Amino acid sequence: MKQFKQLIIFCSLLIIPLLGFTEINGDELLTAEQAFPVKGVIKDGKIILTWTVQDGYYLYRKKFKFLSDSSINFDFANFPKGKIKHDEFFGDVETYRGKTVVTIPFSQNMTKVTFDVKSQGCADIGICYPPLTQTISLSAPAKSKTINPLQQLIKNNSSKIFQDEDTLLDADQAFVLSVSSSKNNIIAHWDIAKGYYLYNEKLSFKIISPDTVSLKQYQLPQGIKKHDDNFGDTVTYFNNLDVTLPIIDNRTSQQEILIQINYQGCAERGLCYPPQSKTIPISLPISKNSRQNNTSPETYVSEQDQLINSLKNDSFFWILLSFFGFGLLLSLTPCVFPMIPILSSIIVGQNKQDSDTSPFTMSLIYVLAMAFTYSIVGVLAGVFGQNLQVVFQNPMIIGVFSGIFILLSLSMFGFYEIQMPSRLQQKLTEMSNQQQGGTLIGVAVMGVLSALIVGPCVAAPLVAALIYIGQTGDGLLGGFALFALSIGMGMPLLAIGASADKLLPKAGAWMDSVKSVFGVILLATAIWMLERILPGEVSLFLWGLLFITSSVYLGAIEPLQAEATGWVKLWKGLGLVLLIIGTLLIIGAASGGTDPTNPINLKQFSTNPNNPIQQNTAQTHFKTIKSFDDLQQQLKQSNRQNKITLLDFYADWCISCKEMEKYTFANPQVSQLMSSIHLIQADVTKNDKIDIQLQKKLSVIGPPSLLFFDGEGEELKQYRIVGFMPAEAFKQHLQRVMQALK
C-alpha cells in the first residue's frame, strides 16, 4: 500500500509541470536538488554535512541512508533531534527543516572520501519527492605546522614574552590523553607534562553512541587545591590522572563505543589553553547480560517497555483504546475499590426531593474530576519526576481525609442533632448537604480528593505513560493516555450511577436503613485509610470495634420477641456472627496480631515442625536499606557472593505492596526460589528527601517496584516489575531472570 502511494506521488511530480501549475503560493515548485542542497567539510576529525532545507519543505529523518566503499562507519552518524510531524503517508515521523547538520567521525589517516547520501523529503503543499541521491566528495585539509594560539598571544604581547617561549608545549603534548577499557569500565588516562596541570571542574564525559550504552555515576580523584589567577580557588591535577568511568552496556551486537571527553588545563607560567574536546572510539566486548540477551531465543521486554514503544509508534486512536482497556483491568484492583463506597454514599445521601441531579450525572462528574486530576498529576510527574499522589500520603492529610469520612458517616446515622452544638451542627450539615445533596461542585471536589489520596497505585500503564512524558516531553499524548486509563478505571463507578435509580429504594424508612449501611461502609473506608499510618495492632482493634458496633445495630444482644419476623431473626444471626468476628479481632490485637484475615496466629501455639500451618506459611526476609549508598554496599556484598539481588520498593500506604507480601512473597514455591537471591527492601513510606533521591537515581515512579541486579551490580532493566504480580506469574518471572544469568 505504501509503495502504491509513493508511485502516485512520483507520477504527480511528472504531471504537475505538464498541467501548467508552475506557481504554488507565488513560488515555483523547486526540484529536489534545489529544495534540499547539501554541503560537506572535514574538520576536527569529523565529516560535517549541512543541509539547507528551503522554506516550505522538510526532510524525513528515517529516510537518510549512506552508501560508501570506504572504511567510514556511518552507524556513528550523529543526527540532530527533529520535530515530530503527522504525515498522511508515513504517520508520525521525525522531520528536519531549515539548517540541518549531521556529523560523522572521520579517521585522520584518510585524506579523501567519496560517498552517496540518500534522502527523501516533501513540500508543505502535500507533494513528496522520490528518494534523492547526492554524491559527496571531500578532502581532508592539509596538515600544516601551526603556532599554538597561546604562543601567538605571547608573541603579540611583548610585555609577557618568555625567553623560552619556543619550549611551550601545545595542548596535545602537555596533556597526553589515552583511553583504555576493562570489564564494564572505560579508563581515561592523562600524562601531564611537568609545569602543567588540569582543572577538576573542566573534566566531563559523554557517550555519543550507541544509545544502548550510558555512563553510570563516577568519581574524580582527589586533586590539589590551587589558587588560579583565571578561575580562583580550584582543584587541579599534576603529573598524571586516571578516571574510571563505569558504564551500563545493553548492546546486543559488537558496536564500537564513541566517548566524548572534555578537559582544560594551564601552564604554571600563567597561561591557559582553550577547552579541549576529544571524541574517541572504543572497542569494548559485549557484557555478559547483553550477550545473554542476544543469544536467547527471544529478548524479554518488560510490560512497561512494551507500552512505551506503543506510545511512540502506535496511532493516537489505538493508544487511547489500549489505555482505556488497561483502565478497565485496573478497575478490578484495590486501587478503585475504596472509591465505590465514597461515590455510593454520595448518591445515597442525596435528598431526591430537593435535588433534580440524577445519580448517573453525579457519577459522571465524580469520574471526570478524578480522571482530569489523574491526568494532570501524571503529566506533572512525568515532567518533574515527582509523583504528587505520593506527596499526599502523609499522616496529616490521611488523618484529615479519614476524619471527613467519619463525619459523613455520622451524618448518615443522624447523630449531628444529638451530639453536636447547634452552630457546629449547622455547619457540618451544610457541608454534608453540599457533598451529598446533589451539589455537583461538591461531587467534583470528592473526585479530585479521591484521585489524589485514595488511589496512589503504581501500575505498568501508568509508569509507561510517565516515562514516555519524561523522555519525550510530549505531555499532550501522555496526558490523553492517562485520561483514557482513568476513564477505564471509572467505568464501574459509572455503572453504579446508571443503576442507582433502579436499585435504591424510594425515600422513606428503607432509605434510612440503607444510609446506615453506607455509614458503616464509610467508617470501614476511614479505617482502611488509617491503616497506612497506624500500627497494625491499632488498626486490628478498630476493625474489631467496627464489627462489634455493627452487630449491636443488627440486634445481636437484643432478645428476640415472640412476634419477631424472619427478617429480624436473620439480622440478629448476622449480628451474632459480626460480634464473634469483632471479638476475635480485638483478642488478636491484644495478642499482637496485625492481620484482619488471621487475627489469632495459630502458628505461634505450635512447635511441631510437621504442623501443616507451619508448612504452608512461607516467610521471606528482606534487609531494609534507606539511601543509594546503602544500596551500593549491598550490591558489593552480592558481588562477593555472586548472587542476584532483588530490590523491593515498599511503603505502608501502598496496598499493592501488602498484596505482594501476603499473596506473592508468602507463596512456598516463590519463597523457595527467593531463598537463593539477595533480598533488600527500600521503605519509602516517609517519602523524605533520601527516599526521593533514591527513587530518582533508579528512575522509580513509586512502590511497588521490583528491580533485579546481576552479580556485578548492573540492573537488568528489562526484568523490572511495576505493580502487583500474582504468585504464579512472579515465580515464572524469577525463573526467567535466573535462566538469563546462567
Structural features:
742 residues; alpha+beta; Immunoglobulin-like; 4 domains; five-stranded mixed beta sheet; four-stranded antiparallel beta sheet; 26 helices; 26 strands; 44% helix
Describe the 3D structure.
- This protein is α+β, with helices and mostly antiparallel strands.
- About 45% of the residues lie in helices and about 20% in strands.
- It contains 26 helices and 26 strands.
- Helix 9 (about 360-385) packs antiparallel against helix 16 (about 475-490) and helix 18 (about 510-530) packs antiparallel against helix 19.
- The protein starts with a helix and ends with a helix.
- The model is unreliable at about 1-25, about 150-165, about 290-300, about 430-440 and about 610-615 (pLDDT under 50).
Number of helices: 26
Provide the domain count.
4
Task: Report the β-strand fraction as a percent range.
Answer: 15-25%
N-to-C terminal Cα separation, in Å? 45 Å
Sheet bearing the most strands, described?
5 strands, mixed
The largest sheet has its strands arranged as: 22-24-23-25-26
- What is the overall pLDDT average? 75
Number of strands: 26
The 3D shape can be described as elongated
Structural class: alpha+beta
The helical percent reads 40-55%
Low-confidence stretches: 1-27, 150-166, 291-298, 432-438, 611-617
CA-atom Rg in angstroms: 34 Å
